[in-house]
Amino acid sequence: MKSTLDPARLDWPKGDGLLPVIVQHWLTGEVLMLGYMNAEALAATQSSGHVTFFSRSKQRLWMKGETSGHVLVLKSARMDCDADTLLVQAEPHGPTCHTGTRSCFGDAVQPPLGFLAELDALIAQRHEQRPAGSYTTQLFEGGIRRMAQKVGEEGVETALAAVAQDDEALLGEAADLVYHLTVALRARGLGLADVAAVLAKRHGASRSS
Length: 209
Prior knowledge:
The chain is α+β, with helices and mostly antiparallel strands. It is 44% helix and 18% strand. The strands form 2 sheets. A 4-stranded mixed β-sheet has the order 2-1-6-5, covered by helices on one side. Strand 5 (72-79) and strand 6 (86-92) form a beta hairpin. Helix 2 packs across helix 5 (167-187) and helix 4 (144-164) runs antiparallel to helix 5 (167-187). The longest helix has 21 residues, at 144-164.
């Protein structure tokens, strides 16, 4: 996905030709890093699809991951209300920070629900790669009927836990249900983002009615 952001709309003079850029994980919402772009860096980002900054220390364009290979693949770019700051949503390939953490602000900044997107991505990877010894691989190899059966079993166990067991048991069963449901969705070429889109659409419809 390439950005359609118009550079001419940005207030470049306000930052002497440089604008701060907040980079966010496009699925989890995690803030990955802060960098700076000039018009040339933005153009390079839009044309290549890899997030590129202007390095103030090196005084040149710098593509994130140009030496490590841990690139940031552009998903979208937006300006703020004052047109002097950019929000870039990207898919990281490897850790964003040179210290090895997912984010330059540490691994603890992931939003609480962000792990669901991480789980969804991991299951999608398992579906594509089918690593030996993986339980997820076993489910995919068992076919959609087996996955549907597991969803049904976990649904019943979750319902029973809600009625007759403590919170810890309920949470455990709910986690099993979400996992197996995510696997079944992936087997049909779908993911949790698709479910979220349906819920958001319903929410919008209920607010307008």
